[in-house]
Design a protein that fits this description.
- The structure is a single chain.
- This protein is an alpha/beta fold.
- Helices cover about 40% and strands about 20% of the residues.
- Helix 2 crosses helix 6.
- The protein starts with a strand and ends in a 15-residue tail after the last strand.
- Bound molecules: nicotinamide-adenine-dinucleotide.
- Nicotinamide-adenine-dinucleotide binds next to helix 7 and helix 8.
- The site of nicotinamide-adenine-dinucleotide (NAD) has 31 residues, from helix 7 and helix 8.
- Keywords: Oxidoreductase.
């Protein structure tokens, strides 16, 4: 009998009021059912938002360092449960155990980082134009925050949102992805066990219907979303109409540039990890390899040889390098893009097919795939495939490489391999992306640095770093006049 899981609303575990559920399955062995989760309705969302509203006054009044103490304890619990959560995450969404341990570690780092920032949450003071007047800014929570997340970092990405939101005194309604509900629940469980009061964090499972109800709910003051650019655009439109604050972190089509002077051993390691780690299902995946013509043939040849050695399998097995795609729709999408690449005239030099070796038939495994002779306007060079498919483009100069790198609608991360500092700095300045790596692949984030993208990847906000606290707080400007008389700004200080 598969386990039946519930929502967590106002301190109580509850089934969906509609009685509907959805199945959570292991993508490495699709016949393995993990459990049934509630398919939440607008009524469930409403209950969760009301619980968050009820809990808000006491939570925002609690001194921030005391809120931080609970977050720090949650970090301790995540650390104690790291392997257990990582095992469950691998079973649910497929990436290998060493990667899911990293996912949990990112949440631990974020918990400690957010906890430490509760002792700062700076406003500032500045001199007044007028005598005997004191000026300052303070930060206040935004209110109830709706958190909607993708499945591929099912603990790390929600933690980027939930920890800073709570640190700032907001209450939260969290809707994890329907492809990774169990991992999201384990994160919530750690926060509850750390002592969060009822209603401060509410968990509602479900699909687009639940997400849309959360976005539309008038009691939700801000939405923090991570997912595809298509869904993000829709959410951004609704939030605009409702005058609701929203942070959107969306898709990527990230380039890795290799110049003629690069250390090719380093390049190979970096590209293998960047393109095929998490089966290419990262927003920051290296999906375009832009090679200087002087190193093109050597890199392609060595890359194909190395990628052939990668072992596909269940991520909970010791020797697995690459896990499965997340679900049947993802497999179909990757297959479609391979056909499209061939039709567009790109040349397939590796993979291009589902892997059905013994032991893999019941999962959605896809062989590492490399296309060469890709040109910038091809759809496989323009669109996010979200699978282990690398498009290789050949260029003859740094300027051309940057132009090609910038020729897509996305702008999350970009990378350049070179030993020439001047060229590296030129790329840092000119690449249109929120993150640039020099001599490292396009992936990897640290909790205390901002993370996010430009163009159609983001809407100007950032996760992580100090910047994240700007999203979860309203700035209030305070003028205190202790002169004992009316002082008129601009009028009593006029110079002419
Ligand atoms: N930039 C980043 O930080 C980042 C990080 C991870 C993943 N991603 C992106 O996420 C995508 C993959 O994740 P996915 O397949 O889960 O994305 P998705 O857009 O399909 O779903 C994301 C979340 O939105 C919800 N949702 C779907 N339709 C909705 C609607 N109409 N209203 C409200 N909520 C709705 C889903 O239930 C899910 O929880 C990729 O594009 C990837 O690049 C971005």
């Amino acid at each position: 009998m598969a386990t039946i899981f519930h929502n967590y609303i106002g301190g109580t575990w509850l089934p969906s009021s509609s009685g509907r559920t959805f199945e959570d399955r292991n993508p490495a062995r699709w016949s393995e059912l993990i459990g049934h989760f509630p398919q939440s309705s607008a009524e469930d969302i409403n209950q969760a938002v009301e619980a968050a509203q009820k809990a808000l006054p006491a939570w925002r009044r609690l001194p921030a360092p005391q809120r931080g103490e609970i977050l720090r304890r949650a970090g301790d619990l995540l650390r104690a449960r790291k392997n257990e959560i990582a095992r469950a995450m691998t079973r649910e969404m497929g990436k290998p155990f060493f990667e899911t341990r990293g996912d949990v570690q990112e949440a631990i780092d974020t918990a400690y980082y957010a906890a430490s920032e509760t002792r700062r949450l700076f406003g500032y003071t500045v001199p007044s134009e007028l005598p005997n007047k004191f000026n300052m800014t303070i930060r206040q929570p935004v209110g109830v925050v709706g958190v909607i997340t993708a499945w591929n970092f099912p603990v790390a990405v929600p933690s980027w949102k939930i920890f800073p939101a709570l640190a700032c005194g907001n209450t939260v309604v969290f809707k994890p992805s329907e492809d990774a509900p169990h991992s999201g629940m384990l994160l919530v469980q750690a926060l509850l066990d750390a002592g969060l009061p009822p209603g401060v964090l509410n968990l509602v499972h479900g699909n687009a219907e639940a997400g849309a109800a959360l976005v539309e709910h008038p009691g939700v003051n801000a939405i923090s979303f991570t997912g595809s650019s298509e869904v993000g655009a829709r959410i951004g439109g609704i939030c605009g109409r409702l005058h609701k604050r929203c942070s959107l972190e969306m898709g990527g089509k990230n380039p890795l540039i290799v110049l003629e002077d690069a250390d090719l051993d380093l390049v190979l390691e970096g590209v293998l990890w960047g393109a095929f780690g998490t089966t290419g299902q990262r927003c920051t995946a290296t999906s375009r390899l832009i090679l200087h013509q002087a190193v093109h043939d050597e890199v392609v040849e060595r890359l194909c040889a190395a990628a052939r050695q990668l072992r596909l399998g269940d991520g909970n097995q010791e020797d697995t390098n690459i896990g499965p795609l997340i679900n049947p729709a993802a497999l179909e999408k990757v297959q479609r893009y391979v056909e499209l690449g061939l039709k567009e005239g790109a040349r397939l030099v590796l993979g291009g097919q589902r892997a059905t070796d013994p032991g893999l038939e019941d999962g959605f495994f896809f062989k590492p795939t490399i296309f060469v002779d890709v040109t910038p306007e091809m759809r496989i060079a323009q669109e996010e495939i979200f699978g282990p498919v690398l498009s290789v483009l050949k260029v003859s100069s740094l300027e051309e490489a940057i132009k090609v790198a910038n020729s897509v609608r996305y702008g999350l991360s970009a990378s350049i391999y070179t030993r020439d500092l001047t060229k590296a700095f030129q790329a840092i300045q000119e690449l249109e992306s929120g993150i640039v790596y020099v001599n490292a692949p396009t992936i990897g984030a640290e909790a205390h640095l901002p993370f996010g993208g430009v163009k159609q990847t983001g809407n100007g906000h950032r996760e992580g770093g100090w910047e994240v606290f700007d999203f979860y707080t309203e700035t209030k400007t305070v003028y205190i006049d202790y002169s004992g008389r009316l002082q008129r700004a601009q009028i009593d200080t006029a110079q002419d």
